[in-house]
Amino acid sequence: MEHYGDVREALARRLPDGLIVLAGGVPVPRNFDVEFVFRQKSDFLYLTGVEEPGSYLLIDPRRSRSTLFIPRVDTHHKVWLGHVPGPGECRKLYGFSDVLYHDQLEQAVKKASAGYRKAYIEPAAYRKLRGAVRMANAPGALRDALEELRACKTPGELALMKRASMVSGAGHREAMRQARSGMREYEVQAVFEAECLRAGLRHLGYPSIVAAGANAAVLHYHRNDALLKDGELLLMDAGAEFRGYAADITRTFPINGRFTRRQRDIYSIVLETQKKCIENSRPGVISADLHVQSMRLIAEGLRGLGLLKGELDGLVEGGAVRLFYPHGLTHMLGLDVHDVTGGRKRRMPNPTKVPVRFVAKLEPGFVITMEPGIYFIEALLNDPKLRRKYRHAIDFAKAEKFLDFGGVRIEDDIVIRESGAPLNLTDVPKEIADVEEACGR
Ligand SMILES: [Mn+2]
After folding, report:
1. How many other CB atoms are there within 10 angstroms of residue 358's CB atom?
2. Ligand 1 centre and the CA of 410: distance in Å?
3. Which of 43, 149, 235, 274 is 20 to 30 A removed from 53 (C-alpha atoms)?
4. pLDDT (tens digit, 0 to 9) for every residue of the chain, 441 residues total?
5. Is 184 marked active-site?
6. Distances from the Cα of 396 to the Cα of 158, 326, 374, 393, angstroms
7. Among 146, 155, 163, which residue's Cα sits nearest to residue 42?
8. 196 Cα to the center of ligand 1, angstroms
9. Is residue 300 flagged as an active site residue?
């Protein structure tokens, strides 16, 4: 509760010269009488912790006041939804001194706007307030201020993220323990999601990816319905949310509990790459440089196996390694699984010679993922144009023998700290011996 009050004060300090108004999310209808499962808008959750739909927030920086506006619930609603907390309860529940009903918003904004010439009203709230507001509105500045603030996590937020990571980690360990050949991918998904639900975490940060064998080479695989086969790997990328804060964890483990020689070779390259990049995740480091470092390490490993040929610089800058590693190393993590970068992305030119989506100078309080991978993707390895372009850099005959392999990704969630080593929020085995033990066959 204190945390949310602090966050609102920080926003008021950044935008001291205008009234701030935000709208919470509203339920989205799915079909007649049925709604999609409601998940609060991230900015609103960030500022209030309110997970119920239909609320508004008014921040009056000059008077240092925040008011929460909640829906007025009628008898019909009470019949269908049961008890809905009223203003008195919401004051206690969310730590607001002022709680009103949402039909009082317009009046309250009019009253509070005395002395202000400016407003920071989010578009969804502005649609409701257009008639009542005479001040110039600057929603872009509100957007930027929120992104700046959300990028660096406070100790309170880190505690929430730790909880999301702990529960998700337990889900991953349980999936390793229970996965068996003959099961379907969705049965392993059920093991993970049951563990999260049992701990009270009802939302996932993103749809779970549970990919056996060659399916692991489909980067956003969501079918999750194939059979698990003896001798293959299973890649699971899954994370739950706690109070809106996501975990984003990937593990790849042998379905029969023992890595083959070939699986070890590929897995070790990914693991060593990930560990080095985590170690180097320090304040001031540019995320794109870490990505290039991960490409070099993977290129070096694949060259050692004879899959790539030639100079490392050429393999990285020429793009040959991207056929095996076609995604980013890292992204921000928070209330959104691909979280805001704090506007810093727009200001920072990419200093490297490779295209990278996330370019930011790491700061204390950033939470980022570290997720290198190696995949054998048929669409890339059998593309005639790419085969011609990279005929001197890639041993395609050798790579073809891996088309049944799928891929390996290892992903942890990392907190950048002022000094010392980064803090790893993820507690799931990843060393080969530890993974085999966790599989416990
Ligand atoms: Mn991720």
Report:
1. 20
2. 10
3. 149
4. 788 999 999 999 999 999 999 999 999 999 988 999 999 999 999 999 999 999 999 999 999 999 999 999 888 888 888 888 889 999 988 889 899 999 999 999 999 998 899 999 999 999 999 888 888 999 999 999 999 999 999 999 999 999 999 999 999 999 999 999 999 999 999 999 999 999 999 999 999 999 999 999 999 999 999 999 999 999 999 999 999 999 999 999 999 999 999 999 999 999 999 999 999 999 999 999 999 999 999 999 999 999 999 999 999 999 999 999 999 999 999 999 999 887 665 567 788 877 777 888 999 999 999 999 999 999 999 999 999 999 999 999 999 999 999 999 999 999 999 988 999 999 999 999 999 999 998
5. no
6. 45, 17, 15, 9
7. 146
8. 18
9. no
Ligand 1 center from residue 371 Cα (angstroms): 7
- 411 is annotated as an active-site residue: yes
Judge whether 76 counts as a catalytic residue. no
Q: Which of 3, 296, 327, 357 is catalytic?
A: 327
Residue 415 to residue 333: CA distance in whole angstroms: 10
Q: Is 346 a catalytic residue?
A: no
Parallel, antiparallel, or unpaired for β 118-121 and 18-23?
parallel
Of the residues 409, 412, 413, 436, only one is catalytic, namely 409
Q: Which of 49, 33, 32, 31 shows the shortest CA–CA distance to 41?
A: 49
How many whole angstroms from 248 Cα to the centroid of ligand 1? 5
Q: Is 331 a catalytic residue?
A: yes
Give, in order, the Cα–Cα distances in Å from 327 to each of 106, 333, 356.
47, 16, 9
Catalytic residue among 157, 237, 339, 413: 237
* Residue 371 is among the residues annotated as catalytic for this protein: yes
User: What distance in angstroms lies between residue 396's CA and the mean position of ligand 1's atoms?
Assistant: 29
327 as an active site residue: the answer is: yes
Place of tokens 């010269």: 17
Catalytic residue among 147, 157, 248, 339: 248
| Close Cβ partners of 26 (under 8 Å, ≥ 6 residues apart) | 53, 54
The answer to whether residue 220 is catalytic is: yes
Give the pair of three-digit tokens for residue 421.
Answer: 């080593």
3-state class percentages of the chain: helix first, strand second, coil last, to nearest 5: 40, 20, 40
Exactly one of 8, 322, 331, 344 is catalytic; name it. 331
The amino acid present at 334, given as its one-letter code, is G
Mind listing the domains of the chain with CATH numbers? Answer: 2-151 (3.40.350.10), 155-439 (3.90.230.10)
- Length of the chain in residues, anyone? 441
